[in-house]
Every structure is written in C-alpha cells, then in structure tokens.
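Narrative of activities, Objective 1.

The group set out to show that a structural description can be obtained from nothing but a protein's sequence at a throughput compatible with the screening campaign. Below is one input-output pair from the validation batch, recorded exactly as produced.
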Amino acid sequence: MIGVVGGGVAGLAAAYRLQQRGHEVRVFEASEDVGGLAAVYETDGDPIEKFYHHLSKSEETIVELAEELGLGEDVEWRIGKNAYYVDGVVHPMDKPWEILSFPHWSLYDKFRLGMLTLDIDVRGGIPSFDTYERLEDFEDVPVEQFAREHTTQNVYETFFEPLLDAKFGSRKADVSAAWLLGRIKFRGERDLFKGEILGYLDGGFGRLLDALVEAVGRENIETGTRVTDIQTDDGAVSGLTTDGETDHDVDGVVVAAMPDVLEELTGYPCDIDFQGTVCSVISMDEPLMDTYWLNIADEAPFGALIEHTNFVERERYGGDHLLYVARYIQSPEEDVWQQDDDEVRETWLSGIESLFPEFDRGSVNWVKTARNPRTAPVYERGYQDMVVPYDLSAEVADGVYYAGMASEAQYPERSLNGGIVAGYEVADRIDGV
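Output recorded for this entry:
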C-alpha cells in the first residue's frame, strides 16, 4: 500500500494516478475536509472557493484531468478583465489601446514593458530573442534591479513596485528576477480585442475535488487523521503511524503537505519561507466595478480586488455580486492577521470606501473570511536550489516522496494545476516512468 499524507489536490491527484496503475492507496488528511486551499463556501447558488482560483491557458494538466473525470465540457474559457487603480482612477489594462492610453507612462515606457512581455531584450539597441530563455540565469538577480534595467525607472515605480508590495510586502527586496520572468511566461493566451483568456469550472473547482474523491474512493480517504510518524527499515519505508497510535504497513509514502510536515515526519529540512493570506468573500446587492481583477497602486489595506461575478455571471450565485478582498501576510504580527472577522470586515469596507467613495456598505449582504498561514512561497533569490525533490530516497529513505507546495511544479506560481502536476510527477517516479 502507498500512504498519502495530505488530502489536498496534490495528494488526491497522486492517489488517483497511482490507483490507475494498480496500486492500493490510502489518503490521510489531518483536517475534517479534503481540498486544502480549494475548499468552498455555500452561496444561494453554486459554491464559491474560499480563496480565488482561475486557470491560465498554459495550465493543461488540470484540463486533461477534468476530461478524464467527465468534467471536460464544464471547463469554461472566459475573458478576465484587468485594470489598475492609480490616483483615484481605474485604468483598464487589457486591450493594446488601453495600455497605450495609460497616462502615467511615456511611449518609451510602454515600448520597454511591451518588449519584456514579448521576451525581447532591447537593451543596447539591438533586439535579442534568447536573453530570457533560461530562468536560472536570473535566479540570483534582485527583481527590482532587473525590472529597472529591463524596462524603465518609471515603469518600476508606477507598476512593478506596487505589485511587488502587494504580493510580497516586506519581503519584496528578497525576490528573484527569475520569478518575475517565470510569472510573465506563465500567463496564457490573450484576445487582442478583449483581454486575457482565463478558465473556470462550471459549478466551481469543488466539483473537481468531489470527482477526484469519488475516483479515489471515499473508503480510501481518512479525514481527521494526522500522520505522526513514518517508520523505516534498512533504509526503506516500512510503515506509518496515525494519531490514534494506529500503525499501517506501507511500501511507500507520498507527503503532499507543507514542508514543515515533511520535516516533522522525516527530518528533511526546507529553507523556503512561506507567506499567509487573509482572504474574504463579500456578497453585495450591487457591483463595485466592471472589471474582474483590479491591481491597486494605493495605500489600501489590500493588494487587489477581485470581483468574481464580473468573470462568472452572478446568476449562478443567486444574483449576488461576489467580491474577493485579500492581503498577503509576511508575519503573524501584522494587524490584519491579528484581527477577528468583524475587524477584518471593517478594515476591508473602510478601505473600499476610501478608493470608491460611492460604495454603499448597505449593499453588503455578508462577509466570510478565511485565513491560512502558508498560502504561497516567497520566491526569493536562490529559490530553485531550495525546492524539495519529488523523490527523497537519497535524502531520507527509499519510498519517501514529496508533492507539496515546495515542489518544482509550484514554480513560478502555486496553483491547482501545479498541485496535480506534482502528484503525477511523484506517481511517475514510484512506477519508474
């Protein structure tokens, strides 16, 4: 039997793929529910994810899995409208003419940023088309230095710096240029006349989790069960123990959890730092804006506003307008992390009022808030050297594998697709594929 520690999407994907290949598998999840960061809230219609999710066109593995599970026709490709809030004005940033009309950049600023997004290095006046091919060449370059040199000072100060502040806060100076390049490459297709094409699953990504659970078999998944020890014999895994002091004989263990769990169970250390998130869903009778994703260059208590029902029609949620408000947390001492749900609600609503004076908090129906201390890595310089290998036979013992968020598949951005890829990669190594 293969034991899987963690019932998030990576653990379920690993179990699913291993079962397909004839392995007996059992999943152990410490919480009462599977899904991890893909867990959902109930609404007056479809469920809504507690933490915002969408797909890029570059994420193919999750689409293939949906097709295998009979959900392929329910993967919808939509336009996710983006905008940028600067000096009290919302500037649409999807179509070429919208970007060209952005008043805070000169024509040269726009040219330099455009060339970077097209992977063309124009430093020195002679275009180079292969400068950005190897991310590892920029692994030790500070992201600020890179952005200034490969675009302009003004583009950095008015665009990249506010985004880095929102994403990494006090850790932005540690971030690698390789992450920024990888993030640019990660983005998917764009419709020249409409904007970026993003994916969503009709009914929410909870349906994918439900289908995975059914495929793996509910009888093979134990929730509310914490793995407390992994036993080895002559350098190979022989068993694991759960919190009820129950021993299970296993031929291998897949740790599909955060690296602190891996270290606790095996002693394998991981130097990657993680940041947390406070994320709320606000239900409103009226829309706040007409865009999906609004990046904010302002002294707001949040880094972005994501109005989900400008991406997926509100009729699916009983007619409510649903808005995500989120902030990354680098330290548990930060004020928003210390606040209770009522205080977070007040912080968000006051922040929205400061940006949108016409906002009527009387239109708010409810606010639901989720917190997680480890939602994303800090992609600092040297990050790729700290990634945890899928196969830990050399480092720990034969039969120990890792598919958590510190795996290679979650770079340059953690995602549901990355979790599925990590689960599959581990399954391939178990079978020597």
